[in-house]
Amino acid sequence: MGSDRDRTDSYEAIRSRVEADGVEFIYAMFVEMHGKPCAKLVPVEALQGLMSDGAGFAGFASGPMGQNPSSPDMLALPDPASYTQLPWQPNVAAMQCDPTVEGELWPYAPRVILARALDALAQRGLVLKTGVEAEYSLVVRDDNGAISVADERDVDALPCYDARSLTRMLPHLTEVSKNLNAMGWGNYANDHEDANGQYEQNWQYADAMTTADRLILFRLMIHTMAQRDGRYATFMPKPFADKTGNGLHAHMSLWDADDKPLFPAGDGPDSLGLGLSQMAYHFAAGLITHAPALVAVACPIVNSYKRMGVGAPTSGATWAPSYAAFGGNNRTQMIRVPEPDRIEVRLADGAANPYLAFAAMLACGLDGIDNQIDPGEPNTANLFALSAEEVAARGIVTLPPTLLHAAENLAGNDVLRAGLGTTADGPYSEYFAEIKRQEFLSHHSQVTPAEIDQYLTLF
Question: Are residues 207 and 318 in the same domain?
């Protein structure tokens, strides 16, 4: 928490930007465990109080934030570096906030967890940079609540990159692109993805905190624009049983304090021939080693595990890894090496909280570096075409089949216990795991139409 002088300087800087931008209101935002954006709408006339004291929230009401109804208020302090005018609502700007309770940063807040992980990384003289591929689907709902693809003409069996589908969605896609560039993010691609009604829009990488903040705003923007067009947007991992799900591939690399990339091999040794440094290989190995627990954070809802599948896919293409493996430019791996300057971690899905996911991935990668874990030989096979028995024979670990399995693995993982930090009540990872156990059991207790269809008259 900054000094009074720091807060005054921050207020003056933001006040000047607000006046120049013609902004009238500020979203004071944070996310809870699930990644739900929470905010208060603050008129600029109250900006000074917001910058000095923060915005007050009843933490218990927002979601899993380690509070109960008797807990004191959370005061969310804005990070001035996150100030962003919203092009789709230009009289509004957003600032991401760090929740505090009774003057102390709140250890249950995902952004605080990532900030502390990045601060510890900085003490090593290192910086984590990330980029994300945020897939989403545009759908409509009928009077019974059932969903269908918003573009009724988007019915091809192989719709990926289809120029005709892309053209029909030009009003939406071009507006998103213009908004991304207006915010200074550097949009460089917009495409129709593998599923009907599925899209992906890419922007330039940045430091991990900036990328996480931007992803939260990107989701808010996509939801808002879809609503204005009478549609729903969903980042849900598997909204349709017969269509490819929504992933959140994360591109990651470490840099030194002088902004030198540390993952390319350059003129140094390259033991595995993928163009990466030994540091990068060890980082990847840490992710592979801890994947059975990491997946609980990267794929954090019951629906996540319906996106994964062991063996050859049965519903078109799938880009969801089922195994903890790595290789070169091979999209059947959990970790792909698209270029010799970064790794692409393909584990996370659209439900992932980016703050928690980046903190967890960083902890696993650093464990690989600290213990010089060997990732093994790069896998070159199409893992989707191999049987589970063949994969096991190669010594490749299969990822957990359900959220319950993943949560149990997380609760017992020492590296993630340390990496996600400690609260007054114990490790955050155990709190997260318990919330997810209950989430699984809540869904598991419900009787589904599929069960009725299969079992009603079977016996």
Answer: yes
- Residue 58 domain boundaries: 4-106
Instruction: Provide the token pair at 253.
Output: 């690399």
Out of 48, 72, 106, pick the residue that ends a domain. Answer: 106
Residue 151 shares a structural domain with residue 221: yes
Q: Report the C-alpha gap between 209 and 211 in whole angstroms.
A: 5
Domain boundary among 47, 75, 106: 106
Distances (CA, A) of 443 to 306, 354, 403, 437, 448: 13, 24, 11, 10, 10
One pLDDT digit (tens) per residue for the chain, 459 residues: 555 556 667 999 999 999 999 999 999 999 999 999 999 999 999 999 999 999 999 999 999 999 999 999 999 999 999 999 999 999 999 999 999 999 999 999 999 999 999 999 999 999 999 999 999 999 999 999 999 999 999 999 889 999 999 999 999 999 999 999 999 999 999 999 999 999 999 999 999 999 999 999 999 999 999 999 999 999 999 999 999 999 999 999 999 999 999 999 998 899 999 999 999 999 999 999 999 999 999 999 999 999 987 655 554 556 789 999 999 888 889 999 999 999 999 999 999 999 999 999 999 999 999 999 999 999 988 888 888 888 888 999 999 999 999 999 999 999 999 999 999 999 999 999 999 999 999 999 999 999 999 999 999
Nearest Cα neighbor of 93 from 37, 21, 147 is: 21
Do 94 and 161 reside in the same domain of the chain? no
| Closest among 131, 139, 133, 203 to 169, alpha carbons compared | 139
First to last CA, the chain: 64
Q: 399 and 377 share a domain?
A: yes
